[in-house]
Amino acid sequence: MRATLIYGERDVRLEDVPDPELATGSDAIVRVVAACVCGSDLWPYRGDTPTPEPRRIGHEFVGIVEQVGVDVSAVTVGDFVIAPFYHCDNTCINCRNGVSTSCINGGWWGSADQSGALADGAQGERIRVPNADGTLVATPAAPRDDQIAGLLTLSDVMGTGHHAAVSAGVTEGSTVVVVGDGAVGLCAVLAAKRLGAAAIVSMSRHADRQVIAQEFGATDVVEERGEAGVERIKELFDGVGPDFVLECVGTKESMDQAIRAARPGGMVGYVGVPNGGPELPVRRLFNNNVGVNGGVAPVRGYIEELLPEVLSGAINPGRVFDLTLPLAEVAEAYAAMDERRATKVMLRP
Ligand SMILES: [Zn+2]
């Protein structure tokens, strides 16, 4: 089959690789129907994180089950399934505590699992899925093609935006600011709206993304950044700031902006993968009773809650995809996101 490997800075290639095979009784083999490129895939692509040797890449996919191991009972051949951006058993103590990203038996796409066999990267044609019963969620029926984009967001960006809102503790009637207008930031707007926020500000400088943010429920857009951005936010919320700030970038600047924008007693929910050394100013947090909560989003636990609303059209997170390319053009998919010609690119094998 064909799958994507990253070799280093601005060098991703679609190559012939071995077809995945069942390695344990709890595995499934899934044929990928749609995958995508994540903002965090751009870090090795841009050389911000090193790639010492070529490796498989991609961690978001939906697909159809082609084979199951003897111990698999929750999914069956022919099911359309959603996978979170990691695999997990969904039964260990960390999974039961709602932190399936820390699953004792889990792991990451594109690397070996605990049996030593490869869990394939998502930007390919097929994937060996370890812990298939815990990892995969089947849809009640085969989805229509126009539902694929929304279902694919449950693999990462919609669940991650939701985690930012849940971690902050967004409540009915509250005020929310979202830092970041990438796919996760836009989904965080949608998640805050869904949880009943009365006012939601998207901090965005891109006209096309502002449109989506407003469709998703943003009541205001702030284009200023840094000190000017914080001042503008405070002006909008009684001179003190919003109840909740959702940090969806992961840089030092975005984290600083999120913490400075929250009102005294407010809470920052953060899901941006830390990149470039964000640190917590404990004295500032102390002086203002501002809290920080969040981390890598355990999206597996959110799929069942969000799935019915995606299928019914009550929420439409698939709007974040603004370019679809065949898998053969994966290099162009990365370039388009790197050059901000696209917010999020879907890949169809
Ligand atoms: Zn687990």
What does this structure look like?
The chain has 349 residues and is α/β, with parallel strands linked by helices. It is 29% helix and 24% strand. It is built from twelve helices and 20 strands. The chain has helices at residues 42-46, 93-96, 132-135, 148-153, 157-168, 183-194, 207-216, 226-236, 252-261, 282-288, 303-312, 330-338, and strands at 2-8, 11-16, 28-36, 55-56, 61-68, 80-83, 86-87, 107-108, 111-112, 118-119, 126-129, 137-138, 175-179, 199-203, 220-222, 244-247, 267-270, 291-294, 323-326, 345-348. Strands 3, 5, 6, 11, 12, 19 and 20 form a seven-stranded mixed β-sheet that branches. Strands 15-14-13-16-17-18 form a six-stranded parallel β-sheet, sandwiched between helices. Strands 2-1-4 form a three-stranded antiparallel β-sheet. Helix 5 (157-168) crosses helix 6 (183-194) and helix 6 runs parallel beside helix 7 (207-216). It is globular. The protein starts with a strand and ends with a strand. Bound molecules: zinc ion. The site of zinc ion has 11 residues, from helix 2.
Rg estimate, integer Å: 20 Å
**What compounds sit in this structure?**
zinc ion
- The tally of helices reads 12
Number of strands: 20
Q: Structural class, from secondary structure content?
A: alpha/beta
What characterizes the major β-sheet? 7 strands, mixed
Percentage of residues in DSSP E strands: 15-25%
Estimate percent helicity: 25-40%
Regions with little confidence, pLDDT below 50 for 5+ residues: none
Q: State mean pLDDT (0 to 100 scale).
A: 97
Separation of the first and last Cα atoms: 10 Å
> Which outline best applies?
globular
